[in-house]
Amino acid sequence: MRPNSRIDARSCCAAALVSLYVALFVQPPVMADENASASREIEAERFHQQVEPMLREHCYPCHSHAAGQMENGLALDWKSGWVEGGDRGPAIVPGKPDDSLVVRAIRHVDPDLKMPEEQLDPAEIETLVEWVRRGAFDDREITPIAKDAQPWWSLKPLASPPIPVVRPAAETGTIETGTVKVDAVTP
User: Fold this and answer.
1) Is 3 helix (H, G, I), strand (E, B) or coil?
2) What predicted TM-score, i.e. pTM, was given to this entire model?
3) Long-range contacts: 76-85, Cβ < 8 Å, 24+?
């Protein structure tokens, strides 16, 4: 056997092993994107069908814009509300249910933090804990508007205000403009 043929055989074996490793363990980016998209759809469905209805029923009465109150500064009706949290800090730590205030509150393990007042069913608690454990998917990015909120004046359409009717000064020296009477000033 020639010395160079031995190196060629090693090179061929190494190349074959690298190719096999890449084929088995490295997914092409297209497959990874498809998997991520499918996973996102599953998490969105789980959130909107299981988690959000529980939040709406048990948490929104005290922690939402629609209710007009956010006890302890915590809003749970949009993602940024629980990310920023309230007076005690972030309410949910994605992937870490034991570090999340919401999980501690619904488990009723802390005597100073029991919410809602009546403890949830164990199945509901497990649904919320699993949601946090899986990363707390929440696609609610728009800030909710309180039901009694007035829209900003700058976002209202332009309108021409009515021109007030001015009546000449009467002998009493008052000018009437609509419903306001102003004393006339004489030079």
Assistant:
1) helix
2) 0.59
3) 76/102, 77/140, 77/144, 78/140, 78/141, 78/142, 78/143, 78/144, 79/138, 79/139, 79/140, 79/141, 80/141, 80/143, 82/136, 82/138
